[in-house]
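Appendix B: complex inputs.
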Amino acid sequence: MSTPVSSHAHADDAEEGLTFRPKFDASGLVTCVATDAASGEVLMVAHMNEEALRRTIETGEGWYYSRSRKALWKKGETSGHVQRVVEMRTDCDQDAVWIRVEQTGAACHTGRRSCFYRAVTGNGAGGATLSFVDAERG
Amino acid sequence: MSTPVSSHAHADDAEEGLTFRPKFDASGLVTCVATDAASGEVLMVAHMNEEALRRTIETGEGWYYSRSRKALWKKGETSGHVQRVVEMRTDCDQDAVWIRVEQTGAACHTGRRSCFYRAVTGNGAGGATLSFVDAERG
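Resulting structure:
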């Protein structure tokens, strides 16, 4: 097996190191993509602040930060639609994380399994229209 | 089949409508998640401005906006690692898009298939460490 780590890499190098040092944006957030661990479907894209990230790692359940409500929230806290994290990964520059989850019920607040229930198709005139896909509510 | 559209929904409603009206952030960007159309793996998370989105829809190839370089870029323009878009979807509040792509070569600038080549694991003491996963370079 080839070694993925260059001999020149330092442990704290953002891209090649093994130190987790999330690159929070100006609002203190990283982007989080949650996918269904079984199907691979993208369930939602949301944000985590340092506290949400820490709680997700410690508890193994999905926590987020709501930009609109300016508040930490545990996914499923009121709905019961919790996310059990099977694996978390970070990307090359550590400004995003990907979690593969076992999703109880619906990830989307509209009651759908995934937030991505509409396809975008070009109309050939510079615009685009939407069409429902996998849009049944649970 | 149940109808996913409420009879009360208006065509231009962000969540239930069929009008594509991306909700750009203060910087004029939406988040884009690109996954491998065959494997479902998350390849990268990046951003699109209005022009990148329009070109992606019109050409069927992935275009992005680089926040660091402040420039529009076509994925693979110099590397040849282009993305053919199989499907684009948008989420409930239309501030993110998900594209399923056929990725030529590596999606990551480090030469790896995906930017998400490190797993994040809690160390039991409030911190986390990284480990390489699927990190071979192409």
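Residues 1-7 of chain A have pLDDT under 50 and may be disordered.
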